[in-house]
Amino acid sequence: MKVVFMGSPEFAVPHLKALLDSGHHVPCVFTQPDRPRSRGRRYLPTPVKVLAEEHEIPVYSPQTLKSQEALDVLKQVQPDVIVVVAYGLLIPKEILALPPKGCINVHASLLPKYRGAAPIERAIMAGEKTTGITTMHMAEGWDTGDIILQEKVDIPEDMTCGELNSKLSLKGSRLLVSTLNLIKTGTAPRISQDENLATYAAKLGRDEFLIDWSKPAYVIHNLVRAGNPSPGAFTYFQEKRLKVFQGKVLPGEENNSSFLQGLTGEICALRPEGLMVRTGEGYYLIQEVQCEGSKRLAIRDYLCGNPIEVGDVLDK
To answer: How far is CA 195 from the centre of its chain?
Structure first.
């Protein structure tokens, strides 16, 4: 089949690779425009654009798909199907109706749960034990189309957002190929989503990653996992932002008489493996941090040049 691919971030790259390896013809790729992404604010291409150019596939990066130019390109290409994976732009109805075999989306959740822009982060923040990947026939709403295939994925209690992203991306790439085989033969199912079970995973703001030490330790742990590798959950120490990339909940410390009195966010103990911090419920061990203008460090390395004492308090 002739398949136009629309995607932007690293999550979409294995899907394009799988599509190219599957024997389908990809006449062009649509991706987000180059944007300043590095510390020097240099304009960099999306990971999908980099891969497409390596394979000498024409790339289009319109600011919006509502332009006549984008529609004209697609009419000229005449794709059998359009595949959309984490593209980041709303697909207008004129484009949804254009390919004879429809538009197919790969979404990183078990729809109808976690529709929207941040399904992976929101699932981890909520402490979900399982999530998954869904392929669907696209409709005009955000992630509201009929389901084609789904596959569940477990979320271990210490899995980070980056690790889950990679796992779901590989699962999704394989599910996409299976889905296109069904589309090609006209046997792809249409399973309606149950609107009563729908939840929405809104795009995350950076302020949402500010650690509130009055929250339970497990809530803080989920936030740290969701922020790793980017943008990083953070707190403040001596008026400087301190990102926390790794830690763990400390069980069995609630009855330790040495730690019963004090403030949330207070350093209760300095251990070789991390800083023990009092939370609103339980204790959290900070194991890897990054100070402003520095690199990520294990806590023992960070403490070599940045002294922290028992009794110091991390601000929320």
So the answer is: 23
Predicted pLDDT of residue 306: 87
Report whether 49 contacts 61 (CB < 8 A).
Answer: yes
CA quadruple 176, 178, 179, 181: dihedral positive or negative? positive
Query: Of 170, 197, 224, which residue sits at a domain end?
Result: 197
What's 203's DSSP letter? P
> CA 55, 57, 63, 68: dihedral to nearest 10 degrees?
-170
Out of 154, 178, 197, a domain closes at: 197
Based on the structure, what is the number of domains in the chain?
2
Range of the domain at 64: 3-197
pLDDT in tens, 82-114: 999 999 888 999 999 999 999 999 999 999 999
Q: From CA 172, how far away is CA 180, in angstroms rounded?
A: 12
